[in-house]
Structures are given as structure tokens and as C-alpha cells.
């Protein structure tokens, strides 16, 4: 019997695929978030699942903690689940290991169920079929199951997450599906060199979309990047930041990079003054250059960025970090 609190979760955030005007509300981004496998354990105590029933060796049960926090208040955005896929690796099967020799040369059915109530002594086990797939007994490879409906229930109400069960038709599931840690590496699961590509253990891929809250008025499209104003005056310039290049990849799981932008250019008199003082400073520079430096092109408006990372307790968390993206440049 195998179980994990967060086998491996891959979470992707995409802005809603829609018109360019709608995308002006949220910077278009593609984020692939990969959570490292944390090892085998029982479901959390808060789930109130009976561990004796859960650890029944005749059953193969998985538990994924899919609590994904919504953006903080005031962000005017919310997460919507786009898809959720459970991926199991079908191993190469040898006929002599099969318990049921009648299926040799045939395909069998793998099925995934989610429990609709927690496992408790004296209670009838209640489960619902999520998805099933016919698979060849001998061909190895990844098998994907659509479990979006179940994940949506868990995201809406984590207390309804009672785990899932994987079954195989007439065969020992442990001979068909890889449930162990990465077989191709002796690296510890907490090692920073963990490789998702080499890990054959079950994984849950969650794709979400960041969308504006319903009823939010659309903003007027702004000319943020100084189109048609030349390259010398103060304006926003493109800058893509890769967290690996600045040493943040040791704690930031995702995104791998983001578009930060920066401000650059000259600040002539009366051009993009951030404050009245900026105008006065420009006049002083005009009449007495030695008295004070000229206004500088700087970020006047910034927006937050959502980062997925591990906290001090090793939990995968999602948090908004303020002032990460330059939205507007002015002279100050």
C-alpha cells in the first residue's frame, strides 16, 4: 500500500486565453510549477481518515494535498482550475510474474476512484469512479487519467479530500505501476538535484488560470512601452529575469522566469514628471546644472508576482510578492 501527502504536483498558471484587451488586465504569463516528491506517509491527521483502513495492503491508495491558496485580497484575480491529470507509469511486465495467467497477451483496465467519504471503522466504504483506461500488459509508458472533477471538489473544500484508489483488473497493481521513488537515481528526495524527468512515481498535473474577478471593469489600454516615442526618452524597457541567474532557484519552485521590465532614458523638461517637485528639479537643472542632478527615469508603478516555493516547514506554498513587475515609468 502506497500513499503520499504530495507525491509530485505540477501546477501551471496561464492567463485566460482571450482578447488582447482582456489580457491587459493581467500580464500574460506561463508558469510551470513543479513540487518535489516528499516521500510516503499517511494522510494528514486533519483528514480524520482511519490509518488502519488506509494502510490495507490489498488496496493502493494515493493522497495529494492540493490546497492552492487564492491570490491575496485586493489582487482582483482568482484561480480557476483548467485541468487536472493523474499520471501513472506503467512498467514493463513479465509473464512469469503475473498472478492471473489468463490475461497474458491481452490488455487490462486500470481504474481510478475517489472516496466520497472518509475511511472509518464500521462505515461503508463509498467511492466514485473518476476515470479508467485499457492498457497493454507488456508495453511500458505513462498513462494519464482525467481527475479534474475530483480536484475541483478538493480545491473548493479541502475537508472533502479523502484520497483516491487505483485498481487493476485481476492483477497485482504493484507489478504493473511504478509507485516507488525515482529508480534511476540514489538521490535523496530532499536533494536539490532532484530530477522530475527521471521520477517515475505517480504525479498530479494541475493547470490553473488567473482570471479577473467577475464584474471588474476593463482598464483602458495604456501605451506602457513608449511606442513611437523614440529610444532615448524615459520609458519601460523589456527585461526577462531567470531566477537561476540570480540564485533564487534554490528556493523558488516556479516560475522559472518572468518579465520584470526596467526603466531607462532621459528626462527632458516637462516629460513624464512623477511629481511637481520633478518639474521644479528639471527647471533647476535647466537654469543651474550644478545645483542639482536632473530627474531620473524610474519605476512609478509596480505590480506583484505569484511565486510557488517551499516554506520553512517544507510545505509547498503560493504567495504574492509585491513590487516585482514594473508597470509604468516616470521621471522623478
TrEMBL record:
GO terms for cellular component: extracellular space. Residues 216-332 form the TGF-beta family profile domain. The keyword Transferase does not apply. Pfam families: TGF_beta, TGFb_propeptide. It comes from the Eukaryota. The keyword Amino-acid biosynthesis does not apply. Keywords: Disulfide bond, Glycoprotein, Growth factor, Secreted, Signal. SUPFAM superfamilies: Cystine-knot cytokines. GO terms for molecular function: cytokine activity; growth factor activity. It is found in: Secreted. Belongs to the TGF-beta family. PANTHER family: TGF-BETA FAMILY, TGF-BETA FAMILY PROFILE DOMAIN-CONTAINING PROTEIN. This is Bone morphogenetic protein 7 isoform X2. It comes from Lingula anatina.
